[in-house]
Amino acid sequence: MELTAVDHRIPLSDGNSIPIIGYGTYPTPPMTPKGSCRAGVKLAIDVGYRYIDGAYSYQNEKEVGEAIREKIAEGRVKREDIFYSGKLWGTDFDPQRVLPALQKTLQDVHLDYVDLYIMETPMAFKPGDEIFPKDKKGNWIFHKTNLCATWEALEACKDAGLVKSLGVSNFNRRQLELILNKPRLKYKPVCNQVQSDKRYKNVKCKNIRSKEQHDQGLAGNQPEGRSKNQQLMLGVYFEPLLEDELLNSLGKKYNKTAAQVALRFNIQRGTVVIPKSYDPTMIKENLQIFDFSLTTEEMKTIETLNRDVRLAGQLRFSGHPEYPFHDEY
């Protein structure tokens, strides 16, 4: 049987499963016209995506929820067909704020539960409704981070039936092990959502997810080598990954685009990918990766494209005591 996004899921360590490709709703650029996200999610569901990746910090969960609700009302999908992932932002890490933050997400997306709820960052910020709090001088207002206390509040949300699986994003090895080694840990993170394009291989993270260690999955942001913000790219110039000669030559061989080859590479190594686009053509193309396979040699050759460059380094927060990228994964 030909695998599709609908029937191709991989198991998570808690007994649940996740589609291997998701539709990312991050607004690129951030000032994307109102309604673009809603239209993108509706089309994504129509063409076969079942994993929708959202976040409170994206400030568009209401549009995501409208799209999901419309498609359910049309009979296009049922609630159980949709895998929705939400994210807890750093201004809500205080344990008393975790449940209200999740409840706001549930209200905005018109769902009774989320399939996956992720700590979007290991860095806490000043608690409050301002997503990016700054002082009068324009400096970021950081807050003391207690990852274990936040995780315990998330575990309570899972116990209440509001979340099926819990995960993290952009955690380094030390931060991840703080949770994994927490006394009285009830639920392990099922994923660490990180950059997965070939400029930064995340070898350490791949080790962490091995079954012998923590049985943790890897979800890939920016699997096609695009950056959310050009200012995050460390001032290093390199050719766009999708212009790479190897990926394009493989694309010609399989009658695919370089982006489709990059996505195929990631899912073929067992990485969940979350491409982001509001362009209808790209939304459709990103899903058309289940009708070809890369050879073992081609997979090994693509591995050599590693440049050890982060596209999601979040340099603006580099002064935070829990800034994750000073350490290796």
Automatic annotation (TrEMBL):
Alphabetically ordered keywords of this record: NADP, Oxidoreductase
Magnesium in keyword set: no
Swiss-Prot/TrEMBL site (Lowers pKa of active site Tyr) positions: K87
Location of the active site: Y58 (proton donor)
GO molecular function: oxidoreductase activity
Domain of life: Eukaryota
PROSITE patterns: ALDOKETO_REDUCTASE_2
InterPro entries noted in UniProt: AKR, Aldo/ket_reductase_CS, NAD(P)_OxRdtase_dom_sf, NADP_OxRdtase_dom
Pfam families: Aldo_ket_red (PF00248)
All residue ranges annotated as the NADP-dependent oxidoreductase domain in the record: 21-306
Family membership: Belongs to the aldo/keto reductase family.
Protein's UniProt name: NADP-dependent oxidoreductase domain-containing protein
Lineage: Eukaryota, Metazoa, Chordata, Craniata, Vertebrata
Gene name per UniProt: LOC102419360
